[in-house]
Specification:
Blueprint: E1 2-4, E2 25-26, H1 34-41, E3 46-49, H2 58-62, E4 69-72, H3 82-87, E5 91-93, H4 100-115, H5 118-126, E6 142-146, H6 150-161, E7 165-169, H7 182-188, E8 191-194, H8 208-213, E9 218-222, H9 231-239, E10 243-247, E11 267-269, H10 278-290
Parallel strand pairs: 1-2, 1-3, 3-4, 4-5, 6-7, 6-8, 8-9, 9-10, 10-11
Helix pairs in contact: 4-6
């Protein structure tokens, strides 16, 4: 028995991969609470999880003794208690790599938009003014990449293609990686792009101290997870004009009305959509469906 407890807004239902699921219990609304999630999945052997807002806690696993496989669309598992899953014999599968190119391209787009001030210049042009000479050239600049997983390596390739000098910090470096100390990366980079998983080790990792180390005028890009960054410290750095930013992820999503980021012209904002191109979407959903097989 397969359950899809949280396809809202619907993405799986509109995918060709959905037709390959044998009579799933399907819900096109978010559970909203542990109790509702449990009520939806407690009789299922397989759960295909779409939204990270569904929290698979120790209590959820304990209440669902029939569950054998949790297939997660995406690579993040910060909403899953992996230790509890293991204790209850639940195999957790993700869809690694399928969105890497899409997210890396989006990170580059945010870099260009922030460095070239494209949203602000677009608004000014539409308003009838003609501001010029306010853009930054990327060629020859230093790009610091934090995290060299599948996405970070794709972004490194793109940055090199723009003629940038690339340096990096990563938890699991390879011998030929251009690795430097993290503080050196903050001090010397003109662009800093974040590509780490959210975990106990990375939550709040970039805060007031780290923003103070960054070069004046540096562009900070986050397409990873909002909680890796101290958002109040980020807002303070942006309000002071110390840096610019391109952000696809936030501590609270969607951004609540009146959030200070919404008023900052040096922040380019997108709605956590970096990995949701048609190509990446279909590939990820198809892998998530394939991961539902018990004998996989």
């Amino acid at each position: 028995m397969i359950c899809v407890p949280d396809d809202f807004p619907p993405v799986l239902r509109t995918s060709s991969a959905f037709r390959e699921l044998p009579q799933p219990f399907y819900f096109d609304s978010l559970p909203g609470s542990e109790d509702v999630l449990i009520s939806r999945i407690q009789d299922s052997e397989i759960v295909l999880n779409i939204r990270s807002s569904s929290k698979f806690t120790a209590r959820v696993f304990a209440a669902c003794p029939r569950l054998k496989v949790l297939s997660v669309w995406g690579t993040g598992t910060d909403h899953v208690d992996l230790e509890a899953a293991a204790r209850h014999g639940v195999v957790v599968r993700t869809t690694p790599g399928v969105s890497a190119i899409s997210i890396a391209e989006h990170a580059l787009a945010l870099t260009l938009a922030a460095a070239r001030r494209i949203p602000a210049l677009d608004a000014a042009t539409r308003a009838g003014t003609w501001p010029r000479g306010q853009s930054v050239q990327l060629y020859g600049k230093t790009c610091g990449i934090i995290g060299l997983g599948a996405i970070g390596r794709q972004f490194l390739r793109l940055a090199n293609g723009f003629g940038m000098r690339t340096i990096a910090w990563t938890m699991h470096p390879r011998p030929d990686d251009p690795v430097v100390a993290l503080d050196e990366l903050y001090r010397t980079s003109d662009v800093i792009s974040l590509h780490l998983r959210l975990s106990d080790k990375t939550v709040g990792m970039i805060g007031e101290r780290e923003f103070a180390l960054m070069k004046p005028g540096a562009v900070f890009v986050n397409t990873a997870r909002g909680a890796i960054v101290d958002e109040a410290a980020l807002v303070e750095a942006l309000q002071a004009g110390k840096i610019a930013a391109g952000l696809d992820v936030f501590t609270v999503e969607p951004l609540p009305a009146g959030h200070p980021l919404l008023a900052l012209p040096n922040a380019v904002l997108t709605p956590h959509c970096a990995g949701i191109t048609p190509e990446a979407l279909e590939a990820g959903l198809r892998m998530a469906v394939e991961n539902c097989h018990l004998d996989h």
